[in-house]
Fold this sequence. Notes:
Elements: H1 2-14, H2 20-26, E1 40-42, E2 48-50, E3 58-63, H3 70-81, H4 83-88, E4 91-97, H5 101-111, E5 117-119, H6 124-128, E6 132-135, E7 138-141, E8 144-148, E9 154-158, H7 166-181
Parallel strand pairs: 3-4, 4-5
Antiparallel strand pairs: 1-2, 3-8, 6-7, 8-9
Amino acid sequence: MRRLLSLLLLVLLIAPLPLFAADAAAAGAPQDGQAAPDFKLQDQHGKWHTLADHKGQWVVLYFYPKDFTPGCTTEVCTFRDDIIALHKAGAEVLGVSLDDVASHAKFAEKYHVPFPLLSDNTQVTAKAYGVLTSHMGMSYARRETFLIDPQGLIAKHYPDVDPKENSRQVLADLAALKQRSGG
C-alpha cells in the first residue's frame, strides 16, 4: 500500500511539471558529436552493462522517470513492439531509470520487455547525461533519449520525448543517419 501511495504521489508530481525543466537540464547533457558518457549498471536480471560493451553498435539509451507509471509504460511497450525493427536497423535498446533492479524485474516481466532496463539507483548515469532532476525532494530521470553511434558518440539527443512516438522517431533518424554516413 505504501509503495502504491508513493507511486501515485510521484505520478501526480511529475505530470504537471513545466516544459522548461527539460530545456534547463538539456544544457548539462552531452551534445551531438560528443563522446557518450560510459556507465556500469545492472539490468532487470542482475547482469552488468557498460556502454563499452556495445562499442561498434548503435545504442538507443532512453531515460524514463519511473517503472509502472502511465507514460513510462507506454514508452517501454512502444520500444518492445518496435524491437525487431530496431534490431534490423542495427540498434540495441537500453532503458534507464532510478528504480532498483527488483522493480525493473517486475516491470519487465509484466510487460514482456525483451531488452535491458538498467538501474541507476546511484544517480551517477542520470547526472552524467544531464537528465537527473527532482521535484519536491523526489529525484528521477527526465524522459530523454540519446542515440549513440558505433564509435560511442552522441548522434542525436531527444530532450522532448513523446512516449508514443519516441521509438519511431529513433528508427527514422537512425535510417537517415546511416544513409548519410554510408552505413
